Amino acid sequence: MSASTTPYSTLSFFSSSVFLSSSSSSHQNHRQPPPSKLFLKTHKPQFSLTTTTTKAGIRSELAATLPIFSFEGTQVGSTTLNLKSAPLDTARSVVHRGLTTDLRNRRRGTASTLTRSEVRGGGIKPYPQKKTGRARRGSQRTPLRPGGGVVFGPKPKDWSVKINKKEKRLAISTAISSALENTIVVEDFEEKFEKPKTKEFIALLRRWGLDPKEKSLFLMTEVSDNVILSSRNIGTLKMLTPRTLNLFDILDSEKLVFTKTAVEFLNERYGFDSIEEEDGDEAEEEGEEELEGEEKADD
């Protein structure tokens, strides 16, 4: 068994070598806009990528030391986020499979049309077969007429596909690992909001060096009602819990914000030495079903 450690200075959604091969490195500057200056001044994480070769295969581990910010916006310490990551040559395919699987499983598959035999009416022949000089026609519900049936139209279909739990977790941890440069850790602030106030939440984002106009994802183990009401009018913000954490929102966000308890959850669930727990799997599946149900209801 051999292991190698490589320091990483820049990791992000688009410029990370986890997702881009060396042949596409020339296009990195065109894929990601420069981050805000304020965010860079207050946020300088340190990365370490370890690749271990065993008889079972190649295992990659990405450890990052992230600063912890208080509610007032000052740095009060640091924490380590230690996640499993897919090897460089398979990272893109793992994340792509996880994303396409999520998107397919969100489809309701309820689109339905009526064939000419299912459309109401059209039982009587509209006019005689001969001696009219017109084309012969046996029903008014032919697909050639308005109001007729549909040829080869959609019918209810199950679009869901299966993905292994370990593969899906690896896709999520790889996506988070690629965005650690744009990630900060904050102290739990659920009880800081005594009443709902969007203006105070926007001021909080600015104290942490976040732009309210940029897409941000908050991962919190518990979200109070006042926090939900204070942040729901911010269209660029996603407030997630471990039950609703999904790959699409991670990749769709420009900044990630984790609480201290959320970091502990990530290290336990997606860490290098994570333990597979049946209760955790059931909770994760229930969260995915809940998220899919909410999205289908919105449609």
Automatic annotation (TrEMBL):
InterPro entries: Ribosomal_uL4 (IPR002136), Ribosomal_uL4-like (IPR013005), Ribosomal_uL4_dom_sf (IPR023574). Keywords: Ribonucleoprotein, Ribosomal protein, RNA-binding, rRNA-binding. Residues 274-299 have a biased composition (Acidic residues). GO terms for cellular component: ribonucleoprotein complex; ribosome. SUPFAM superfamilies: Ribosomal protein L4 (SSF52166). The keyword DNA repair does not apply. One of its GO terms (molecular function) is rRNA binding. Signal peptide: none annotated. Residues 24-44, 107-151, 272-299 are annotated as: Disordered. It comes from the Eukaryota. HAMAP family: Ribosomal_uL4_B. Belongs to the universal ribosomal protein uL4 family. This is Large ribosomal subunit protein uL4c.
